[in-house]
Amino acid sequence: MRNILQKRALRYVFGANMISMLGSGMNSAAVAWYILQATHSEMALGMFAVLQTLPAMLMLPFTGVLIDREDRRRLVMMLDALRAVIILTVSILAFAGKVKVWELYLMNTLVAAGFWMFWPTITALIQELTPEGEFVASNTLLLAGVQGGWMIAGAIVGFVYEHIGLGGVLMIDVSTYVVSFLCYFAVRQGRVVPRADELKHDLVAAETAVERFLREMGQGLAFLRDHPRVIFLGTSWALFLGAMMTGVVVTPPLSDNIFHAGAQGYGWLNGGWGVGAFLSALYAPVAITRLGSRGSIAISMALLTVAMALSPFSPWLALAVLLYGLMGSARGLSGVAMNTSLMEQVPPHFMGRVQNTFYFFGTMLQIVLGVTVGWIASRVSLAAGFGVIAAVYALAFTPDGKRLISGAADRSVKVWSPETGERLYTMSEPLDGINAIAIDPSGKRVAAAGLDKNIRIWELGDRNATLLHTLIAHEDTILQLAWSADGRTLVSASADKSIKVFDADELQEIKAFAGQPDWVLGLRFSPDGKRVAAGRFDGSLTFYDATR
User: How far apart are the first and last CA of the chain?
Assistant: First the structure.
């Protein structure tokens, strides 16, 4: 990291991002809190999250070409200036006491348009400025600053909002954009555009602007088609992005409705995430070196899943803050690993187009999640809303990170290579759709279950799998599966409102817990394997004895 910080241009970029994200984080937290207090509706927060994605849906298919064609530094400066003017206008209305919720929605939509172009642009600029072999260090500093600044800003808002109001927070955001603009101005002089060697000047001169634009867009899609490993990485990034951006729907009501802690509780939760994200900078390079990018991503997703699912069941605000810190730290590690992998695999002149393709699908997911989570949190329970987000994080990697297991309504279980994107083989034994997949801690066995009420266990090989056991385990659809840490016990939950514990070696039932008050949507073993936690659709949580 010392080598990275010795580069003047990168110091200015990291400083600009840290300062800018402090303002943006304060803006986002203050606006979300204002909307919740004005409407008392999680659906309104869901709309807030959805409106952040609309500009992306319109812009992302096209702006990747612009990012790869123009000077990235100048693009970022232009985006900072435009967003500062928009926020300044709304801050004046807030100071005058005339701001309305729809005006905040409009500001959010316009500023989000800048954000969705800003992030792939800054990632491409850092790739351009970073020497080969230093991508882990540069991404660690970037994401530590961005995530730490954003979420710590949310913590600050929790404590100052009642004193300076929405207008004061927005004015602080404007000032950070001014400082960011000046930092980027000092990065370098002149216009610099990375271009591929094969891009001939005579060809460019002979094309119309539209023809050139369409050709460059087609080149980006062709690159992805020829690089399935990048597609797999981008799919993980899109899922991760959609889940993370939807957190704004559930965090304010967690503080207000569960802990009754008001704006200060909201600040503590954001602060927990921010501190965790910042601390990830201390260990991310070592973790990625030892575990590899795939292993780091898999572990991070598992931590995000568990912590997100457990947060609404926390009996104390302090424990929820700790869980948010764990999520922030996992987000920091996975973000560094994903960004580094992209920079290593994607040439600089393709980076804008490749990133925007994944951001596009991530924002499509965010639209669905924003509406779904908002509706579930307001009509069912807040815990169920958290559970939906946790489920998106829960992609099942084998513990060694070498295989990805998928199950779907096409009645098959498939084994993939995350490294190459190749489908290794298919287990077509299931007679109906798959709802749950669990991999034992050794990574050698996989259990799958779903609509046909059966549990099946396979032993995984390099090019095929051997079916070890099949059992009609429940009277209705099976919803969840989980292995104990020692691999000896398997637990299942079903729509028949029962939980069953099995000897995993023989797939024989040991005990059952019938009469569940609602569907069990989450199952997790304690580290010692003696208890299993069951989280239900109604928001309740119960621990059961899983010993034999």
Answer: 51
The H or E element that residue 46 is part of is helix 42-51
**What span, in angstroms and rounded, lies between the C-alpha atoms of 243 and 394?**
10
Give pLDDT tens digits for 442-491: 788 999 888 888 999 999 887 788 889 999 999 988 988 998 888 899 99
Q: Which CATH superfamily is domain 404-545 in?
A: YVTN repeat-like/Quinoprotein amine dehydrogenase (2.130.10.10)
CA–CA dist 32, 270 (Å, integer): 12
Would you list the DSSP string of 343-372?
HHHS-GGGHHHHHHHHHHHHHHHHHHHHHH
Same fold, 2-380 and 404-545: no
Task: Spell out the CATH class of 2-380.
Answer: mainly alpha
Angle formed by the axes of helices 101-129 and 8-39, nearest 10°? 160
Listed in order, strand segments (DSSP E) in 200-302 are: none
Q: Which residues contact 184 (CB under 8 A, 6 or more apart)?
A: 12, 13, 16, 73, 76, 77, 80
C-alpha–C-alpha distance, residues 58 and 78, integer Å: 19
Distance from C-alpha of 280 to C-alpha of 272, rounded to nearest angstrom: 12
Domain parsing of the chain, residue ranges: 2-380, 404-545
Listed residue (138, 241, 178, 250) closest to 23, CA to CA: 178
pLDDT digit string, tens, across residues 53-78: 777 667 766 676 777 777 888 888 99
Q: The dihedral of CA 324, 174, 67, 364: what is its sign?
A: positive
For β-strands 445-450 and 454-460, DSSP reports them as: antiparallel
**Plot region of 411 (φ>0 → left; ψ -120 to 50 → alpha; else → beta):** left
Closest to 447 (Cα-Cα) out of 422, 430, 464, 462: 430
The SS3 assignment for 109 reads helix
Nearest to 151 by CA among 262, 84, 248: 248
